[in-house]
């Protein structure tokens, strides 16, 4: 790369207004000169490190210029920018849009009173970063650099502009002083002596000259110019070429002479030494022959295995899922085929042939993962029939003869870590006697509704396929994953041993639920959600089971690098799930979230949206219970307690339990007092009620969407199909609005009795007679649906309407039926909840519409609860108050 002399740094001068002074705090570039957007200069390809290929030689005084000359003779607009984003405290770049092939450059200055080693923690910066003319970042992650005394010119190239990004610049030693364990492990894993391979594409099928660039992420430990050896191998691991180069240099390699010595890929090993003479390796991979031949051979072997009848349905699903991902890689556009994707091909090739060998021996796909310690597994989701995947890392001595703790990394989005990420970031470091796994919660769901259903399904798959210690299951997540960790642990406080939350908020009202759980809470002190992410949890939780780490000068996007560190996992592993704590405190507003160790809330008090209970054992002779808004609850005495003479005191009322009494004690509120119900009392409700969950309860299990067989008009058909698509593909109101599900849509005549009984159903219609399934169950519908109106608790209401209501499925009361009906299909377009379905999060609390059992639009939008019949025992009554607003309101 080009060397810039002292004093030549760089082209730009007079940057006083765009200067950040580095002292004892971390700094951000909160003022800069913006050049562009401009079409990217032809010489500035992915591997370019020379700023003189972008800008004309200086000096250039940006303070007194409206345009800047580029190296190719063009000029670009230049302006000073100092608008700060309130959430990130970085420059707000949301007003800039880059078109295809355009770039934007920011120029700023860092002033340091002395020579200082710094490190930079970028997040979602899509482009390059130079300091003093030296390329230090190219979509490559955190880096370390030695600032000179005085001014240091920073140039940032943006290939894309992200709304939420971060560039935290900090004195390395000061951060280590703050928390050596946290920062030390971060530096070791992400920066120290690390080199990355920058490449435009890993596809060399149509080119013989392949270009890549060796970028040092540690300009202190591995400076540019450090010698490196390149070793080229074929698919069998045989060396076919070797040559010398240097770090910080573009390599142009002619593959013509060696490509015929491998079947599919060339495997490149880069060997180099740091300034301490320690030896390091980095690998890269290039595609030189089409993947189709490899995939075809794997498909043939899978077909042969299927014909042998030695494979279970689960094993065949796993092979099918693996092959489907390989096909997806094969059809990627040239510029999207990265080395990471080819590393996935390498991993899958190894796993596939290992699994085939095990299956031929009469063993399972999981045996291949166990042998290799690391792999992707697949399962067919019952929720929507999709094939879902998980990535699992097993301890080195994994055995079927014992159980292991389970750490679940909850993803930020659809997925988070891929198999190559596990290999690079965790495999070599994983010296823990524990299983690590990640799987999808179907998007940015915050562990709510669809997200909870997906999580519980994934957890069931993992505990069935691997040897998991049920008393040592831990959740860990960053951002959306942290919100999910909080939400799921608050919903199931007796299921998990601990959680690690990195910059994610908890429901403040339910923090009390975690009084018997280990919590590691890591957050930046400048996080925009610090109140719910850190302040409130630290106030409510405490003691040896709570560890809070507040990083100075960090925002929400500075902490994701800590998420997978072993120090946090080791802290979690010190804790075990408590099976029968002496004291519990539990609050819930959802019918499905009702159990906390030895207490289960079965009914809220009438008119209440939540219930809360505190229970405490006083020795083994007395249980004190305090309740808020509880209509009925069950107390289950732990097996460890020997039942002798026992006093149960509920809100001051005393009940005496004699020796030999049943371990399950049920109490019901009658007026102002509780009544001890006899053991013969049986719950009379149909499965789990929807109260507190409302319409959203339909998404807590597998779903089928059932549409009519016949339509009165083409417009009606189009209207209903549009509504069915809304419910088949619900959305979230987050940075990624997609929920990655697609529930099957089928005509009612194709709904089998088996599916009708085992699934939650969403039935959409405008006429009962044209919908075969609704016609069959019309007598069981809680609301009468008529052409000229509807019949509900208040009687018959005449007129056009669109109504959604949820009830037990008549084919199986443990399942749910959501009926979406309009007597005029045009009303589907006027009801906000049939135009677009945005699923809320548990963190947001009780939703006044979607958490009700009925949503009605007949000119005004109303939400209410169903009044159950006298023959049914009403449960979880969350209030009978109706909510009403004007029909033109779009407020969700």
TrEMBL record:
Q: Which organism is it from?
A: Paenibacillus sophorae
Q: Where is this region: Disordered?
A: 872-892
Q: Which InterPro entries match?
A: AB_hydrolase_fold, Plant_Biomass_Hydrol_Est
* Keyword annotations: Hydrolase, Signal
* Bilayer-spanning residue ranges: none
**Single Gene Ontology MF annotation:** hydrolase activity
Family annotation (PANTHER family) = FERULOYL ESTERASE, UNNAMED PRODUCT-RELATED
- Name the record gives this protein: Esterase PHB depolymerase
Where does the record place Basic and acidic residues bias? 882-892
């Amino acid at each position: 790369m080009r060397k810039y002399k002292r004093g030549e740094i760089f082209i730009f001068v007079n940057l006083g207004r765009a200067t950040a002074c580095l002292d004892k705090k971390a700094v951000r570039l909160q003022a800069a000169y913006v050049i562009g957007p401009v079409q990217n200069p032809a010489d500035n390809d992915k591997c370019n490190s020379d700023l003189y290929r972008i800008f004309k030689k200086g000096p250039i005084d940006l303070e007194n210029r409206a345009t800047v000359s580029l190296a190719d003779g063009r000029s670009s607009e230049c302006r000073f920018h100092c608008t700060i984003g309130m959430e990130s405290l970085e420059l707000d770049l949301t007003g800039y849009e880059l078109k295809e092939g355009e770039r934007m450059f920011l120029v700023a200055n860092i002033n340091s009173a002395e020579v200082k080693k710094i490190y930079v923690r970028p997040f979602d910066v899509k482009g390059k970063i130079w300091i003093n003319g030296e390329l230090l970042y190219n979509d490559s992650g955190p880096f370390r650099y030695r600032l000179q005394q005085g001014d240091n010119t920073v140039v940032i190239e943006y290939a894309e502009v992200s709304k939420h990004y971060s560039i935290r610049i900090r004195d390395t030693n000061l951060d280590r002083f703050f928390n050596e364990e946290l920062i030390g492990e971060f530096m070791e894993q992400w920066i120290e002596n690390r080199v990355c391979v920058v490449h435009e594409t890993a596809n060399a099928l149509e080119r013989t000259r392949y270009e890549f660039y060796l970028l040092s992420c540690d300009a202190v430990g591995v400076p540019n110019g450090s010698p490196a050896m390149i070793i080229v191998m074929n698919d069998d691991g045989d060396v076919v070429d070797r040559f010398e180069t240097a770090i910080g240099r573009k390599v142009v390699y002619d593959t013509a002479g060696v490509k015929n010595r491998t079947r599919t890929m060339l495997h490149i090993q880069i060997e180099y030494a740091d300034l301490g003479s320690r030896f390091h390796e980095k690998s890269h991979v290039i595609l030189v022959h089409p993947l189709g031949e490899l995939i075809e051979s794997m498909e043939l072997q899978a077909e042969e295995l299927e014909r042998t009848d030695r494979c279970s349905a689960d094993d065949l699903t796993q092979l099918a899922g693996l092959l489907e991902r390989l096909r997806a890689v094969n059809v990627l556009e040239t510029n999207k085929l990265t080395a990471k994707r080819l590393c996935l091909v390498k991993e899958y090739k190894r796993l596939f042939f290992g699994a085939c060998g095990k299956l031929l021996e009469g063993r399972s796909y999981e045996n291949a993962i166990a042998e290799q310690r690391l792999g992707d597994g697949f399962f067919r989701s019952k929720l929507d029939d999709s094939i879902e995947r998980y990535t699992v890392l097993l301890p080195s001595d994994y055995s079927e003869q014992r159980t292991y703790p389970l750490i679940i990394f909850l993803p930020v989005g659809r997925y988070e870590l891929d198999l190559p990420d596990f290999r690079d970031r965790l495999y070599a470091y994983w010296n823990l006697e524990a299983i690590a796994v990640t799987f999808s919660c179907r998007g940015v769901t915050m562990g709510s509704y669809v997200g909870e259903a997906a999580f519980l399904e994934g957890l069931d798959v993992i505990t069935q396929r691997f040897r998991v210690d049920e008393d040592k299951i831990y959740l860990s997540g960053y951002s959306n994953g942290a919100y999910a960790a909080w939400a799921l642990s608050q919903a199931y406080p007796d299921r998990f041993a601990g959680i690690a939350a990195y910059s994610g908020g908890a429901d403040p009202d339910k923090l009390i639920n975690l009084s018997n759980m280990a919590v590691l809470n890591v957050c930046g002190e400048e996080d925009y959600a610090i109140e719910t992410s850190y302040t409130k949890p630290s106030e409510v939780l405490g003691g040896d089971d709570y560890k809070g780490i507040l990083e100075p000068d960090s925002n929400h996007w500075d902490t994701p690098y800590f998420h997978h560190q072993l120090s946090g996992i080791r802290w979690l592993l010190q804790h075990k799930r408590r099976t029968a704590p002496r004291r519990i405190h539990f609050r819930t507003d959802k019918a499905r979230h009702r159990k906390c160790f030895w207490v289960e809330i079965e009914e809220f008090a009438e008119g209440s949206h939540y219930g809360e209970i505190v229970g405490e054992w006083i020795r083994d002779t007395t249980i004190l219970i305090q309740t808020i808004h509880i209509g009925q609850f069950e107390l289950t005495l732990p097996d460890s307690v020997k039942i002798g003479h026992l006093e149960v005191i509920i809100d001051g009322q005393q009940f005496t339990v004699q020796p030999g009494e049943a371990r399950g004690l049920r109490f019901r509120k009658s007026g102002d007092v509780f009544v001890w119900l006899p053991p013969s009392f049986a719950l009379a409700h149909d499965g789990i009620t929807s109260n507190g969950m409302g319409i959203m309860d339909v998404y807590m299990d597998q779903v089928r969407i059932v549409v009519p067989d016949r339509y009165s008009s083409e417009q009606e058909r189009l209207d209903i199909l549009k509504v069915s698509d809304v419910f088949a593909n619900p959305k979230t109101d987050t940075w990624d609005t997609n929920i990655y599900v697609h529930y099957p849509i089928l005509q009612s005549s194709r709904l089998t009795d088996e599916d009708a009984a085992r699934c939650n159903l969403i039935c959409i219609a405008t006429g009962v007679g044209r919908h075969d399934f609704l016609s069959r169950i019309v007598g069981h519908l809680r609301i009468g649906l008529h052409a000229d109106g509807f019949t509900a608790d208040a009687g018959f209401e005449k007129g056009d309407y669109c109504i959604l209501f949820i009830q037990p499925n008549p084919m199986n009361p443990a399942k749910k039926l959501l009926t979406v009906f309009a007597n005029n299909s045009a009303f589907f377009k006027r009801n906000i909840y049939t135009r677009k379905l945005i699923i809320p999060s548990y963190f947001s609390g009780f939703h006044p519409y979607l958490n009700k059992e009925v949503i009605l639009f007949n000119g005004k939008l109303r939400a209410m609860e169903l009044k159950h019949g006298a023959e049914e025992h009403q449960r979880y009554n969350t209030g009978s108050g109706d909510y009403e607003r004007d029909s033109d309101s779009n407020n969700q």
